[in-house]
Amino acid sequence: MMKTNIFLKGLLAAVLPFMAASCGEDFLTVVPQDQLDSEAVFSESSGGDLFLSDIYNNLPDQETLNSDGFGYDSFEMFGDNAVARYDWCVSWNIGIARDYGPNNTGFLYAHGYPSIPFYYPRMMANIRKCNVFIKQVEDHKGNFSADWIRKRVAEARFLRAYFYHQAWMAYGGLPIITVPLDRNTQGDAIFYPRSTSEETFEFITRELGECAADLPNEVGAGHATQGAALTLKGWCELFAGRYDLAAATNWQVMQLGVYDLYQEGYNALFTEKANNCAESIFAYQHVPGNKISQRSMLFGPIGAYNGWGFMQPTQNLVEEYRMASGLPTGEDGNFDPRNPYAGREPRFYESIIYHKSTFSGKVYEINDLYDPASNLYTGYFRRKGISEPLNLGQEGYNFMFFRFAEVLLSYAEAKIELNEIDDTVLDAIDRVRRRGGLPSLEETYGKKNFTQAELRPVVRTERRIELAFEGKRYWDLIRWREAERLLNLPVRGISYENGQYVEKSVHAMKFDASKNYLFPMDQGWIDTNPRWQEQNTGEFNRGQNPGY
Questions:
Q1: CB of 75 within 8 A of CB of 116?
Q2: SS3 of 335, please?
Q3: DSSP code of residue 68
Q4: Binning pLDDT at 50, 70 and 90, where does residue 443 land?
Q5: In which region does residue 291 sit, left (phi positive, over 0), alpha (psi from -120 to 50) or beta (all else)?
Q6: Quick one: 396 exposed, middle or buried, by C-beta within 10 A (0-12, 13-18, 19+)?
Q7: What confidence score (pLDDT) does residue 35 get?
């Protein structure tokens, strides 16, 4: 019986465009004969479940260090909500220059996966694992029940679509590969051209729509569900600007009768108590003392708390939090720039450690928060989701990829962009605002009817505040085409000097609209794939993205 490493055999086919440049022909060697036996692994459902669990484990958890990457440099810092603690971090330097190119991607990927959650080699490797799983289940279908096959194959298709969507947002069009490939048996047939961005979008959303029908309609404890598939589909439609589809799909999730907002406190939502609650749609699972989260260690405040302080909120973000009235600070006469933290909305106090605030029994003075000599640049620490006190080794907080509050805001945004503003739109926004401790839109603004121009900034700001530190901000700026404006503004912090608050410039940012809306394909990946080199029309220049 032939033994193959079913995790690695044929991996070449999906990853050759980026591996061959560094590994040469050694990567083409036959897999050793002492690896996992596919006949044994797929002889019963428990073996198949273990294989699928390995794929789940490769999802991009953004709150843990691992052997692949440096999780302290979260992708959240690629936007304008927070900065990394040290100026040698990838996110800090990329924000300043964005000087990566096809022959200069080494630093961009220096902190590995999942700090860069879309890293093409890892995405294609994970996609191949999904393809292997689907093929092996088909080849051994006599070993499984029909119900098991239907559900597990749907999960694998969901995971494949998830990895594809990460790469699609970053690179645009991708090679669509749905079968395991092996150069030993297929030769140059393993080289696939890049499909267009539209074709890639259609593939992802079609897969998600189809697999949703075979997934259970329940709150899943880490496994894909009907709601997870539809939520990802609705997000991709929103990202693509297909607002009619996004509105319909997010409404479909709202009508499933499974999800609701967590009502025991906004910050409590990000604790172990709320793991897999009715708001959680799809989450990376953590277990205290076993498969731990390191969120509090990585992003909690330094000093007495003993956190690393790697995610420092910016003044750019802090000034967006509303007053308790629900109004922006500039529209509320009670806002006092000499006392800027008084009278703010509850989510501000649950998300940010600021001057004179108390956290874990300590009152934070300005020298605890702003001291560039100690790599404290913004005057703030993250509070949202940080445990009091630090509980190293026992933190089991899940990392949510999608939750119901985002579905409500995505539905509202899509309808606003369609200029189809009705009570369902206002109710969706109000549900999120009320849970966050704000009055309704009618109570805030004293009227029931709103225009598209009035509601667009409301829903965008609501999304920024509600989803802060959850890895959403950069992609929102990309899809809104606001990156060229907001990511060319300085990152700002704040200090307290001589009895008054003084804004500080942390660093400049740079974003080139002619190319930076996509990341470049590494030239080594292109050089290895003759099909990419032939693509000189439409979206690609010899397989490369525009501007690189």
A1: yes
A2: coil
A3: S
A4: very high
A5: beta
A6: middle
A7: 45
Q: Take residue 186 and report the two structure tokens written for it.
A: 């297929």
pTM above threshold 0.90: yes
Q: What is the mean pLDDT of residues 182-199?
A: 95
- 8-state DSSP, 116: S
Can you tell me the distance from the alpha carbon of 370 to that of 453, in angstroms, rounded to the nearest whole number? Answer: 37
* Bridge partners, residue 101, by sequence: 104
CA atoms within 13 A on the CB side of 371: 12
Calculate what percentage of the chain has a pLDDT beyond 70. 93
- Which residue type is seen at 432? V
Tokens of 285: 């699972």
Residue with tokens 């002492």: 34
Rounded Cα distance between 93 and 10, Å, is 36
For residue 188, give both structure tokens: 């140059």
Distance CA 108, CA 101 (A): 9
Distance between CA atoms of residues 397 and 284, nearest Å:
9
Instruction: Enter the tokens of residue 339.
Output: 């006392």
Sign of CA dihedral 294, 300, 302, 306: negative
Alpha helices in 187-242 (DSSP H): 197-212, 226-239
> Do residues 191 and 148 lie in contact, with contact meaning Cβ atoms separated by under 8 Å?
no
pLDDT higher than 80, residue 180: yes
- Per-residue pLDDT tens for 357-366? 999 999 999 9
Higher pLDDT, 420 or 18: 420
For the chain, give the longest Cα–Cα distance: 79
Distance of alpha carbon 90 from alpha carbon 513, whole angstroms:
20
Which of 223, 114, 157, 119 minimizes the C-alpha distance to 471? 114
* DSSP assignment letter at 325: T
Residue from 466, 74, 92, 513 nearest 269 by CA: 466
* Token couple for 59: 């999802």
- For the chain, the helix, strand and coil percentages under 3-state DSSP, each to the nearest 5: 45, 10, 45
Quickly tell me which residue has 């709601």 as its tokens: 227
Cα 385 to chain center, whole Å? 16
The answer for residues whose C-beta is within 8 angstroms of residue 399's C-beta and 6 or more apart is 61, 62, 63, 64, 283, 284, 286, 293, 295
